[in-house]
Amino acid sequence: MDHDLVFQVKKTKPKAFNLNSRNMRELPKGVLALTWLSGISLNNNRLLSLPEGLHCMQQLTELNLGNNAFEEMPPVLKHLHSLKKLHLFRNRISTLHPEVLEGLSNLVVLNLNHNKIRIIPTAIKSLSNLERFSIADNQIEEIPAELGLVRKLTEMDFTRNSLSGIPHELYELTRLRKLSLARNALGELPEGILGWKNLRIFDVAGNRLSVFPADFQFLELEEFYFEGNNLIRSELFKSTQDEEVLPLKEHAARFILKERLNKSSLVSNALQFHPGIQAMLSRFGRCAVCFEPFLTTWVECVRFISLRKDMGIKNSGDVPVRVFLCSYSCFNKSSCSYYVVCKVKP
Ligand SMILES: [Zn+2]
Fold this sequence. Notes:
The chain is α/β, with parallel strands linked by helices. The chain contains 7 helices and 15 strands. It is 16% helix and 15% strand. It comes from Silurus meridionalis (Southern catfish).
């Protein structure tokens, strides 16, 4: 029967070929002769492997292997250099071999949802043309920093994994428009979230977040999902804090930072002979009240942002966003409702 089917295909020479839901354990050999094909769909079969001969299909741009029995990414895929869309959802894949990823540099869409993957290899950085990456419903505990090098990514889905954090390098994905980190175990998001300047849809529902990173309110989100976290509750108490005495190092650092921001040539000339100090000073922050630079965050507090009023998102509700201040003196004079966080026993 498969033979007849392939024969028919040879006569009509369609670009794409569908062998979905045929209960196949192996790819029929005749398919390998159809070297002009640009798409093959083998969805919902019982395939465990693909023949090495598949490498002759160099026109193939789309391959759907979803709902099969693969336990690894088939090794022959590394030879299919034209492949742009690869669907491997609902298989039993536990391992992603780096050498297979390295051969897939033209891939634009990769769907690995519903597998048993624990580790994303650092070779993920080879997918330099990848725009849409879904790996929902797996067992990923850690995202490698190298994913931040896949700069064309616009959509990522990490829903229902075991992530406890994300690397700050992900903020280098400036084209990202849609991101789901829902149903993981995230306790915190790193600082620097404004790197995601094109993010419009953001889902972090069902994690353990207590506060959002500084400047979160400046993201231009259109949809935001955050239910089911451990957000700091806004039970507010008025208080003022005694002013502190800064250590000498902090005083000196603030003085030099300020001079450098004012473009003092004396300071910049002196600093060029001290690369260690320059590196240390490059990690400075600025106070949310007086905008003066500081080296060490002196007061970390939160501000409650109204999603509707401050961010123009349709959701109702407020979320706590982290704010850094240079001193208690700024905290005391702030009219902007910043709150120091303290733990209260239940
Ligand atoms: Zn200040």
